[in-house]
Amino acid sequence: MRVAMFSTKPYDRRSFEEAGTAGLDFRWLEARLTRETVSLAEGSPAVCLFVNDEADASVIASLASGGTRLIALRCAGFNNVDLAAAEAHGVSVVRVPAYSPHAVAEFTVGLLLALVRRIHKAYTRTRENNFSLDGLLGFDLHGRTVGVIGTGRIGALVARIMRTGFGCHVLAHDVRRAAALEEIGVVYASRAELLANADIITLHCPLTPETHYLLDRQSLAQLRPGAIVVNTSRGALIDTEAAIDALKTGQLGGLAIDVYEQEADLFFEDLSAEIIQDDALQRLLMFPNVLVTGHQAFFTREALSAIASTTLANIRDFAAGRPLVNTVTAASVKG
């Protein structure tokens, strides 16, 4: 079966070939899937997509008319796919529900440490033989209150690390409570209570209509003044313009993000020789208390291997007519 794999980087191809692509005809495409590039999938019963590929209603209609019957996401999130349109056109959608939650959880803590201890700034200084400590003053994480919004696989790991590893007080917010976290002293709270009392807030929830701009002007105003926010989930959980204003007033004491709401045309590409037209991102990069990375939290050997293995299994199940264990539908999301 032919599979059109969009947004392909050399490491993607290596990980899939190492996992074994026998019996499948992969077309390795560097382009993102968009309305302009959907014709590249013509004649492919399956397409394989990543986080910034666009599978809205019009793209799915084009895919279906070109013979595509499966969208295989090599990620956990599915906010970039119109699930209702896929169902209407008879296109199945599968994903990788869990690849390496440890990868993202560990990176989240790494971002937090780098930001509060100014490690990224110290690295830049010492490369220029500047060993002054002025401007590098940080603070202890021990004893601080950390708010974890979303306690699925990744959020639960972060909560556990901060609680048992750093000795933090941990507040959590989720529609479902994890008894195992409560057993180690994690306290579930309302979103308003978490925002008002946390020194550090880290986001680990999916992007849905309900969570879009979870941190907007109103919610940022509810933060404890000077609070730190970390986001390794989806960019549009944060209203960037509102965050910029909160940084300027000091209401937001620091921001560490591995995702950005307008990242689709930027992240995963080398744009070092170009003039980036995204003014909001450029303003963020000017703040001394902002740390931005390019969606690399997932990027470990273990995660890439798991992504490839699960995605290939999903595609082979579809090709063989077997039940799709990792399918996602509009009904299942609402349920």
**Count of DSSP H/I helices:** 13
Mean pLDDT: 96
Number of strands: 12
The CATH H-level superfamily of the largest domain is: NAD(P)-binding Rossmann-like Domain
In order across it, which strands form the biggest sheet?
8-7-6-9-10-11-12
Strand-residue fraction?
Answer: 5-15%
* Class from helix and strand fractions: alpha/beta
Report what the structure shows.
The chain is of the alpha/beta class. It folds into two domains: 132 residues, Rossmann fold; 192 residues, NAD(P)-binding Rossmann-like Domain (Rossmann fold, 3-Layer(aba) Sandwich), CATH 3.40.50. It is 37% helix and 15% strand. The protein has 13 helices and twelve strands. Strands 8-7-6-9-10-11-12 form a seven-stranded parallel beta sheet, sandwiched between helices. It has a five-stranded parallel beta sheet with strand order 2-1-3-4-5. Helix 1 links the parallel strand 1 and strand 2. It starts with a strand and ends with a helix.
Please describe the topology of this protein:
Layout: E1 2-5, H1 10-19, E2 25-28, E3 46-49, H2 57-65, E4 70-73, H3 83-88, E5 92-94, H4 101-116, H5 119-127, E6 145-149, H6 153-165, E7 169-173, H7 179-183, E8 187-188, H8 191-197, E9 200-203, H9 217-221, E10 227-231, H10 240-249, E11 252-257, H11 279-286, E12 290-292, H12 301-320, H13 330-334
Parallel strand pairs: 1-2, 1-3, 3-4, 4-5, 6-7, 6-9, 7-8, 9-10, 10-11, 11-12
Helix pairs in contact: 1-12, 4-6
